[in-house]
Amino acid sequence: MFVHVLRMEVNVGILAIQGGFSEHESALLNCLKENGGVIDGVALRVRKVTEICDLQDLNGLIIPGGESSVNSQIMSEEMIEELANWSSNQKHFVFGTCAGLITMSKNIENAFPGQENHFSKLAKLDVTTSRNYFGRQQNSFEGKVFIKEKQISKYDENMSEICFGVFIRAPAIVSINSVDIKLLATVVVDNKEIIVAVEQNNCMGLAFHPELTNDIRWHAYFLSRIVQLCES
Ligand code: GLN
User: Fold this and answer.
1) 77-100 mean pLDDT
2) Whether the model pTM is above 0.90
């Protein structure tokens, strides 16, 4: 007998203004069961988002790293407005890494002139994020990230609560400004625990680059949140 298995169609866009597209695309595809990953029952389509029309039918969006000051120069008011409208739909999920986290933060410390205003409509995370918190390019580092959310660590076969983080001229979250913020991960530098990943409603921001490692947990969590929102 032929059994037809229903698969949920999920469309993910990756804002392709400054690169980072192929790394995020591979990480997403590696999450799927058919590619040896942990997410089952999802028919995934990934596309670049460069224009407003690319937002059509998207369920999730990744805002990759790069240079947030460049983002603020390249992204038009209209594009930011459309992205903001799209992300205010609570069925849509937004995932920002590094410069993406800066773009999504309501308060930016050490901001590029005009940057905070430019992104304000898109900024839905009630946090203060400090740009270049760890220093310059030469202070970039790789280190242990402590995962505080079981729904993320569960995607590791050993349920490990530690992952490897790549921090490139990375920001850090220096203040949580709402009880609605969920703390997802921290790093410890010079004996100080620093927040590097948060979530609020349909938005998640990370200070590091999970797409530059083979660890699919963050992208798997992102896909699982999209599925949850589609089903709710
Ligand atoms: N330091 C960069 C900024 O201010 C972010 C770096 C990154 O995305 N890797 O936007």
Assistant:
1) 95
2) yes
The whole-chain average pLDDT of the chain stands at: 93
List of domains in the chain: 3-231 (3.40.50.880)
Q: What percent of the chain has pLDDT over 90?
A: 79
Reduced to 3 states, what is the DSSP secondary structure of residue 20? Answer: coil
**Is residue 24 flagged as an active site residue?**
no
The answer to whether 19 and 66 have CB atoms below 8 angstroms apart is: yes
Strand 42-49 relative to strand 8-15, pairing: parallel
Per residue in 104-130, is it b (16+ CB within 10 Å) or e — as a string? bbbbbbebbeebbebbebbbbbbbbbb
State which of 21, 101, 102, 141 you would mutate to test the pocket of ligand 1, scoring each by most atoms of that ligand within 8 A of its C-beta: 102
Instruction: Report the nearest-CA residue for atom 5 of ligand 1.
Output: 99
Q: How far is the CA of 133 from the centre of ligand 1 (A)?
A: 10
Task: Write the pLDDT tens digit of every residue in 133-175.
Answer: 999 888 899 999 999 999 999 999 899 999 999 999 999 999 9
User: Relative to the CA of 169, which ligand 1 atom is closest?
Assistant: 1
